[in-house]
């Protein structure tokens, strides 16, 4: 489906901030609507997502933000980092983390997320990563299915238990 569209995937630049922020806020809203106790409100995130913060991400050697552009419009993004896994019990190796995959609703289901993931996987391999990790919340079945279709597998479970607030 994407081959009919002239989509360009490239590294984000500071000039892309407004378009990137709009996509991040789309994701923020989705997550907040699904679990308002876990995620910050979109209005709060709109204040927290600053151009200065984005500039810091872009400057970081270990972090990459890739965007998908159709003409002048930014319609998707993938972001993540690469680092040496340092742990007392885990083997030392270069591991990447995908932090965010967002596609404009108008282009959802057309294979753009798969293309973005493939591009960042390639970048991670070039950086020496031997494994990619990501977190998917239980409510996000669509994302879970997307990652499974790209050969991602469940490696561990993050479990939670709510406690009564005592005064």
Strands, count: 5
Radius of gyration: 17 Å
Number of helices: 5
- The CATH C-level name is Alpha Beta
Shape: globular
What fraction of residues sit in β-strands? Answer: 15-25%
Counted up, domains total 1
The CATH homologous superfamily: Gcn5-related N-acetyltransferase (GNAT)
CATH topology call: Aminopeptidase
Helix and strand content put the structural class at alpha+beta
Which architecture would the CATH scheme give at its second level? 3-Layer(aba) Sandwich
Helix content: 25-40%
Distance between the termini: 56 Å
What attributes does this structure have?
Aminopeptidase, 5-stranded mixed sheet, 167 residues, alpha+beta
Describe the 3D structure.
The chain contains 5 helices and 5 strands, in the order βαααβββαβα. With 167 residues, the protein is of the alpha+beta class. It has a single domain, classed as Gcn5-related N-acetyltransferase (GNAT) (Aminopeptidase). The chain has a 5-stranded mixed beta sheet, sandwiched between helices. β2 and β3 (73-84) form a beta hairpin. The longest helix has 18 residues, at 17-34. The relative contact order is 0.15.
């Amino acid at each position: 489906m994407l081959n009919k569209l002239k989509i360009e995937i490239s590294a984000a630049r500071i000039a892309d901030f407004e378009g990137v922020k709009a996509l991040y806020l789309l994701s923020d809203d989705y997550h907040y609507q699904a679990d308002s106790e876990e995620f910050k409100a979109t209005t709060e995130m709109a204040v927290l997502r600053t151009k200065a913060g984005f500039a810091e991400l872009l400057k970081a050697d270990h972090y990459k933000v890739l965007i998908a552009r159709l003409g002048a419009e930014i319609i998707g993004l993938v972001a993540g980092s690469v680092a040496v896994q340092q742990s007392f019990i885990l083997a030392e190796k270069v591991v990447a983390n995908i932090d965010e995959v967002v596609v404009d609703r108008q282009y959802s289901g057309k294979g753009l997320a798969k293309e973005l993931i493939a591009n960042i996987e390639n970048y991670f391999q070039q950086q020496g990563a031997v494994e990619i990790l990501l977190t998917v919340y239980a409510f996000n079945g669509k994302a879970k299915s997307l990652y499974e279709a790209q050969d991602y597998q469940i490696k561990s479970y993050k479990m939670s238990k709510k406690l009564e607030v005592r005064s």
